Amino acid sequence: MFEAIFENVRQKSPLVLSVTNYVTANDCANLLLACGASPVMTDEPEDAVELAAACGGLHLNIGTLNQRTIPAMFAAGKRARELGRPVVLDPVGAGATHLRTETASGLLREVRPAVLRGNISEIKALASGESAARGVDADAADQVTEDRLREAVDFVKDFARRTGAVIAVTGAVDLVADGERAFCIRNGHPILSAITGTGCQLSALTAAFAAANPDQLLEATAAAVCAMGLCGEIAAGRLTREEGNASCRTYLIDAMYRLTPADLEQGARYEVR
Amino acid sequence: MFEAIFENVRQKSPLVLSVTNYVTANDCANLLLACGASPVMTDEPEDAVELAAACGGLHLNIGTLNQRTIPAMFAAGKRARELGRPVVLDPVGAGATHLRTETASGLLREVRPAVLRGNISEIKALASGESAARGVDADAADQVTEDRLREAVDFVKDFARRTGAVIAVTGAVDLVADGERAFCIRNGHPILSAITGTGCQLSALTAAFAAANPDQLLEATAAAVCAMGLCGEIAAGRLTREEGNASCRTYLIDAMYRLTPADLEQGARYEVR
Amino acid sequence: MFEAIFENVRQKSPLVLSVTNYVTANDCANLLLACGASPVMTDEPEDAVELAAACGGLHLNIGTLNQRTIPAMFAAGKRARELGRPVVLDPVGAGATHLRTETASGLLREVRPAVLRGNISEIKALASGESAARGVDADAADQVTEDRLREAVDFVKDFARRTGAVIAVTGAVDLVADGERAFCIRNGHPILSAITGTGCQLSALTAAFAAANPDQLLEATAAAVCAMGLCGEIAAGRLTREEGNASCRTYLIDAMYRLTPADLEQGARYEVR
What we know:
3 copies of one chain form a homotrimer.
Chain A: H1 2-12, E1 15-19, H2 25-35, E2 38-41, H3 45-54, E3 57-61, H4 69-82, E4 87-90, H5 98-110, E5 115-119, H6 120-128, H7 149-163, E6 166-170, E7 174-177, E8 182-185, H8 198-212, H9 217-238, H10 245-258, H11 261-267, E9 270-272
Parallel strand pairs in A: 1-2, 1-3, 3-4, 4-5, 5-6
Antiparallel strand pairs in A: 6-7, 7-8, 8-9
């Protein structure tokens, strides 16, 4: 199934608009190119609205949100939503500051994104309205581990039901769920958490996968999560003893460039609950 | 000829000011350092005007244009123009949105850049006032190919005559022309289109080459285009079967760092029409 | 001594807030992750103030200062100062434009950073109120060389005394001083000056080292400078004949990822005057 989904990305080469942070924008663009999509980025509301109408999918990311980018995200998000383009929201640092929590909550409510992708602390902050995150990384206490998996699956399905979005929570085990089904994904490598923006890159990738597979949003999101994790495994596997997170960052995008739909089909490790 | 032009860049180490997008700013800065120039970047109008007076050349790039950077580009552009510093305009996404088309047209009219560098869709949008581009990549239908080369050369020379700028159109074949002569350049490699910002990097490089060779703008621009294409060939040639666009991005800048003026003279592949 | 200081960074994993330029933000974030710290970035005043209260250390960098980031830097800086969090100020391009000189001077006066780190031209511009810099690189005439070391040490100690900050001046020889003692550091490699943002990265690293060692600001700053220089040596030593500044940029961060506290203790080359 993931083979056909990825094949669609490579074939259709969807135009993905990102209204995103400047810290990891370059990696998002190169990852989109690596998967076969075509990136375009803006933070100006007028420009964002016009590009939202032209794009196949929209990636909204609040990593360096500010008074210009917030209106651009709302405006582009609403326009894309009206036109039926899938919107992926990445609520970077939700729970860490009021502005982040409120902006992400507002986007969730007013744009109603097709997919919400974050770490567990961000998703919990949005689900509960409470704040517990420290910076932009997930709290250790929140981590989805094997022994808390059942509880986490229930939480994510419930939140998906309430929001109408596919929810992707990434961590040691990744969960991708709508109200009915949850993919529990075991691709990935710990070093990815030492590379800035792997979450942002995954959100951008998810927008490409969703844009090329608008009728299978749950599966497209799960495929993107598996693809990113698999590329992380490949990248980590290439590291020599002198190399670290910076080389791994390069190898991660390289791996996506070389990944075939058949590789993804074969390498994806998940179960559906 | 290109040997002496590149030698001037290495010797004079021009200060190049970029008012550019945040997606590829880091690569532009590292490529400028690799060629021997010194980069400085800003997007604040007041700061931009003062730096424009200090710089040897100015790179204006509308890739993530907004209500702060647009005035900064106009102000810096006019100041640099008054002082006789070469200005290179990169109209990223002209034709894709009204704001981009109008901003690029306005800069072309009011700043009168020494060099205009874009893909064929962007340049056609500016020449015709019409929009056809999808995102920031050139439309396949617009591509300059061998069998449409003569027509493209005429178009570019004509637009150069009308604007007074050297026009550089990059694609499968690159064209660099003023009103009289056109360099048809066959350096480069297809993988460059899978690396975000190779166009932006070329525009920044062109500003460095023009700054160091202000009396030979046509040749300096052609030399920059050949140098970038040649480095793309070298970079692509280094790729192993595991590597892709991300490694190529690194190798491209590495290649510029190692490129000698004699390498450029020997590797440049072009004819003048 | 540096072993224990670096050990604290790895153990405590301080949250470092950067209000910094978009040219090198990605490298700053990856270097922070490489050393064991946790990065978060913003440029919106409200967000910056709230994150300043949560962070262990604050990195302020005026590389692409503008009318939004300037208030964010003042607001975050004052809040961090109130709460006793160490603030590191990087006055990129002070001396090159009025806006940069005045902003850096204002931050120095109103935030009273724990550490001021720049090149010699920037530091002299702030000490004297005069401008001599060209762009963002140090003037050759200003460089700290062995035969002018004594004079430079006196200048830096005096400026440290006047400002109450630890002053770090990086160049051929690096100086780190408070009013009493100066570390003269001889780690590093010339190729670092051909990589954009190595200074920014060092400032971010210094914020991490200071955050994890708030009672030893002088030593923590000296340790960060040694660590960066040592990683530069390791990175430069890995370069093949085809590789240049772009590969070195990657290897630099890799080296930090692999560096152990014992490596730093052993590789640090300095004397105290």
